Amino acid sequence: MLTRSKLVTNLTLGLFAVILSCTNAAANPSWMPTTGTTSQPVGHYEFCQQYPTECQPNAPAATPELTAEVWEQMVEVNSSVNAAILPRTDEEMFGVPELWSYPTTEGDCEDYALLKQYMLQRAGVPRSALLITVLRQRNGAGHAVLTVRTDQGDFVLDNLDERILAWNETDYLYLKRQSERDAGKWVAIADDRDILVGSIR
Fold first, then answer.
1. How far is Cα 95 from Cα 126, in angstroms, rounded to an integer?
2. Most buried pick, 89, 95, 152, 193, via CB within 10 A?
């Protein structure tokens, strides 16, 4: 008889096999196209003032191979953080429009992303592959997720979705993300997909 954890593991590995086979079938793995340095979000700048060691140049590292073990770590971290943190805005928590921080019991989108980044780095994924990413939802609202860069493309860990999807399988308009080379710098994303966001296509 399968225990719940064994069942989750089996389902996770089965899903990984399907995703990997679909990704390998494509002519090219899907990575977000970037165009160069852009402005750092104010909230991240202030976060870097508080945690300067988290905003340093990254050590050179190869793009991680998307193995079953790495996929399972991504699923586990995404699921556990989403379940553990109660969604609340910075206005509700701190009385300010924006404050990036590591959450303990509650937080907003960038707080989820920061904690997932922290946990996956501690699990051995290179920091250069764990990139906080800013985007717009279909309703025009700003949002942040964690992008995990792998040899099979860029995958999104999102507090609004339990699924881990390739970036171009989501209906977000991606704007910018952390640089692979330097965690304190940001690069623009050239998302030219035909995505309708608010009243702007």
1. 34
2. 152
Q: What is the pLDDT of residues 116-138, one digit of tens each?
A: 999 999 999 999 999 999 999 99
Closest C-alpha among 100, 78, 105 to residue 90: 100
- Other C-beta atoms lying within 10 Å of the C-beta of residue 48: 17
Give CA–CA dist 2/147, Å, rounded.
32
The answer to whether the CB of 81 falls within 8 A of the CB of 115 is yes
Domain boundaries, the chain: 4-189
Closest CA to 186 of 138, 134, 143, 117: 134
Model pLDDT, residue 26? 42
Beta-carbon count within 10 A of 97 CB:
10
> Is there a contact between 85 and 115 (Cβ–Cβ < 8 Å)?
yes
Strand 130-136, strand 173-178: pairing: antiparallel
Q: Which residue blocks in the chain are alpha helix, DSSP H?
A: 4-25, 42-50, 68-84, 90-94, 109-122
Residues 176, 186 contacting (CB under 8 angstroms) = yes
DSSP state of 63: P
CATH of domain 4-189: 3.10.620
